[in-house]
Design brief:
This protein has 758 residues and is mostly beta strands. The chain has three domains: 107 residues, Nuclear Transport Factor 2, Chain: A (Roll); 109 residues, Nuclear Transport Factor 2, Chain: A (Roll), CATH 3.10.450.40; 366 residues, Beta-galactosidase, Chain A, domain 5 (Distorted Sandwich), CATH 2.70.98.20. Helices cover 14% and strands 36% of the residues. The protein has ten helices and 36 strands. The longest helix is centred in the N-terminal third of the chain and has 31 residues. The radius of gyration is 32 Å and the shape is globular. The structure holds copper (II) ion. The site of copper (II) ion has 6 residues, from strand 27. Its cofactor is Cu cation. One of its GO terms (molecular function) is quinone binding. Its EC number is 1.4.3.-. InterPro entries: Cu_Am_Ox_Cu-bd, Cu_amine_oxidase, Cu_amine_oxidase_C, Cu_amine_oxidase_C_sf, Cu_amine_oxidase_N-reg, Cu_amine_oxidase_N2, Cu_amine_oxidase_N3.
Length: 758
């Protein structure tokens, strides 16, 4: 009995001791918690931005809108539009539906004066095979009831556009491929097998076209070069090219006009066959080779490259087609033809630009083989925005970027969705925006990282990939930039080829070519009434007031106002260094508030003006050309440029030919950036972006009274003794706040080394 009582007491004591121990531990943990590291960096989801509906007037058409327009046009019995996605050239085909931009005056009334929202309309392009002409329609208002109006005459001063000016559609390509199969491959099976390893349905030859398609208006004669059926076919030319005349809308009337084999021309298949059989043409003997064009890495990845993250959440917001970032806001769109564009670009609420948009990408090639002798590509004729495909996270854009889907209706019979074809991200460009370390007197450090917002799309147009960026900096600058990458175009090396480029693989010539890109920059500096100013520097000889020993040559400021369109058409060779779109208003210091256009370009000559094709690319004459804004001059190039180069329906030089006044007017700057590409061994397998770019930077110049980035929350400042203080240097506390074992502890001892005068 006594033993039982003793056992119970022991148990009770143990339980009480246990409880006391738990309570003491809790109290101790609570008491000591202040001494443990705090990992309390706040990570909000994203900024809360005050979006408006204003951007919607520039928004691309929605899938519902595309379908409504298509169905409406299909229901117009008199237009007799085919429903097939691969309509033949002889049929009527609805080639394109794209947003019709509102008239600028209406848009500004809506944006600035609460006027009624401009009606939403579409531009519709119909290729009328039955009637052998092309027409453009305005269809709207959306959401309906819809009406259509033929606007061809209004836009192009002709009742209908020439049939030969149309883009080659998927439907026409189907017929071209069938033609090649029946009229070339089937007839030359033996020769093509022996020469190029051609085996039907197993080892094919892939076609690549030269453009333009002929020598004069109305021509549709295309040189097609053939390439091995490998990935990266563009750098696998086989030395075989054919000229097809496909002018007639019925493919049964098409003809094979010429052949080229190993540098020798033949008029017919038969003549080539005879020559090949007799051995009078030097035969190319097929040899299987490893695919040097493959992009499969030659070594396996060993890890992941550095990735950026937003430690405190995104500082920008994308809603519908409007982006808000720090002091910036803008609306965006992606035209199937011209590509990326932004509108109503504002900094601190003030509109800087009404529109900044890509207009055209052009390349002129040199060669001694026919597929490329004449080649001058004008990409908007096939569609620049059309080829914006899904972007790859971590490579095309940072993993943490915001991705936007786009919808298009071009060369098809249904709306197509392209997921994640636009990306938006904030990125530290890796070089301070500004900094100063005060070594002499008043020791201090002030600086700021250059974190900017990127708005990007990438278009893969055939062999080339163009990376298009609009970049918004915290100093109030905005930049439009393009970089080229992808495969070069090449031709089979024959005698004399090296005059037109360098050899880059066995029998492969990388052809010399140019890249020219045109941007529309519609700046509105404090309203639409602006002037075009130039500034530069010259030397003048001056007396030295304190001595007669000698004179000195001193730089001085040369300022001019260019008053007419022709005066302000500045070629690549002749342009003052500073170009400004300026307001009549002045800043605190009495200078005209302006934005400067700083063009990064190594363009050179585009094409001698005596060449008939030059009319379709006359925008490329000028590094910067300023025109008075007109709704009738919306683009510098057109859908019809490529296949009607010799009598182009849009000839930019006519925009400035009337030499209108540009004083106190609404001004548009048409900016051309470009570079010469002499392909070299390192273009194999792909051209790299490093060094292959150009663009235009729009930067404030006396627009503000000081650099606006001084107000940025990213500014860093400290003095001797306050190096570890986080009040104006958030990075100093990052390691503690994140408790990150990978972050180096923050230290700064730079003031130890300053000059001392005592
Ligand atoms: Cu190139």
């Amino acid at each position: 009995m006594v033993a039982q009582v003793t056992n119970s007491l022991v148990k009770c004591l143990l339980i009480i001791l246990g409880l006391i121990s738990v309570i003491v531990n809790i109290v101790l943990i609570c008491l000591n918690s202040n001494r443990l590291p705090k990992c309390h960096l706040q990570v909000p989801d994203s900024i809360t931005a005050n979006h408006t509906d204003h951007g919607s007037i520039f928004a691309d058409l929605t899938p519902k809108e595309y379908q409504a327009i298509r169905d409406y046009m299909w229901s117009q019995k008199d237009l007799r539009i085919s429903h097939s996605p691969t309509a033949k050239p002889s049929e009527n085909f609805l080639f394109l539906i794209d947003l019709q931009l509102p008239k600028k005056r209406d848009a500004l009334q809506y944006l600035d004066h609460h006027a009624q929202k401009p009606q939403r309309k579409a531009t519709v392009v119909v290729f009328f095979g039955e009637f052998s002409h092309l027409k453009e329609y305005e269809v709207g208002p959306l959401p309906g009831p819809l009406h259509h109006r033929d606007v061809t005459k209004e836009r192009y001063k002709m009742d209908a556009l020439p049939f030969a000016a149309r883009t080659v559609t998927i439907g026409e390509y189907v017929e071209i491929f069938t033609f090649l199969h029946l009229k070339v491959f089937q007839k030359l099976e033996t020769e093509l097998r022996e020469s190029f390893g051609y085996i039907p349905n197993k080892s094919e030859l892939n076609p690549f076209e030269g453009m333009p398609r002929g020598l004069k208006p109305g021509d549709r004669k295309t040189w097609i070069s053939f390439f091995r059926d490998e990935s990266g076919m563009y750098i696998h030319p086989v030395g075989f090219e054919v000229l097809i005349n496909h002018e007639n809308k019925n493919s049964s009337n098409w003809t094979l006009d010429k052949l080229l084999y190993n540098g020798v021309y033949f008029d017919t298949i038969e003549r080539f066959k005879q020559s090949y059989e007799k051995g009078t043409v030097k035969k190319i003997v097929f040899k299987k080779i490893p695919n040097y064009a493959s992009l499969k890495p030659r070594r396996k990845p060993t890890g992941v490259s550095p990735q950026q993250s937003y430690l405190q959440g995104k500082r920008f917001s994308v809603k519908n087609n409007q982006v808000i970032y720090m002091d910036w806001s803008f609306a965006f769109g992606l035209s199937s033809l011209t590509g990326m564009r932004v509108f109503d670009v504002r900094f601190r609420g003030e509109r800087i630009a009404y529109e900044i948009s890509v207009q055209e990408a052009m390349s002129v090639y040199g060669s001694n083989t026919p597929g490329m002798i004449l080649t001058k590509f004008l990409d908007s004729s096939i569609g620049i925005g059309r080829f914006a495909h899904e972007l790859v996270r971590g490579v095309d854009c940072p993993q943490v970027a915001t991705y936007v889907d786009v919808y298009r209706y071009i060369d098809t019979n249904a709306t197509q969705r392209f997921r994640n074809a636009i990306c938006v991200f904030e990125y530290d460009v890796g070089r301070p925006l500004r900094r100063h370390f005060s070594d002499f007197f008043h020791n201090s450090y002030g600086g700021m990282a250059n974190s900017a917002l990127y708005f990007r799309t990438i278009t893969a147009i055939g062999n080339y990939d163009y990376i298009w960026d609009f970049i918004f900096y915290q100093s109030g600058s905005v930049e439009a930039r393009v970089h080229a990458t992808g495969y070069i175009s090449s031709s089979f090396k024959i005698d004399g080829s090296l005059r037109y480029g360098h050899q880059v693989a066995h029998n492969v010539l990388g052809n010399i070519h140019t890249h020219f890109v045109n941007f529309k920059v519609d700046l509105d500096i404090l309203g639409v009434n602006n002037n075009f100013l130039t500034k530069d520097m010259a030397y003048e000889e001056v007396d030295l007031p304190w001595t007669s020993e000698r004179k000195a040559k001193v730089p001085y400021l040369v300022e001019n106002q260019l008053k007419t369109e022709l005066q302000a058409a500045l070629t690549h060779a002749r342009s003052p260094r500073y170009l400004h779109v300026a307001s009549n208003q002045t800043n605190r210091w009495g200078h005209h508030r302006s934005y400067r256009l700083q063009v990064t370009s190594f363009a050179g000559d585009h094409l001698p003006e005596s060449e008939p094709e030059e009319k379709s690319m006359s925008w490329a004459r000028y590094k910067v050309a300023i025109t008075k804004y007109k709704d009738e001059e919306p683009t510098s190039s057109s859908l019809y440029g490529q296949n009607y180069m010799w009598d182009s329906v849009v000839d930019f030089s006519k925009y400035i030919g009337d030499d209108e006044s540009i004083q106190n007017e609404d001004l548009v700057a048409w900016v051309t950036a470009g570079f010469l590409h002499i392909p070299h061994a390192e273009d194999i397998p792909n051209t790299v972006t490093v060094g292959n770019g150009g663009g235009v930077l729009l930067r404030p110049h006396n627009y503000f009274d000081e650099d606006p980035s001084i107000h940025s929350p990213d500014g860093v400042y400290f003095l001797p003794g306050s190096e570890q203080d986080c009040e104006y240097n958030r990075v100093a506390c990052l390691e503690k706040e994140l408790c990150s074992p990978t972050l180096e502890p923050y230290t700064y001892n730079g003031f130890e080394g300053v000059l001392k005068f005592d």
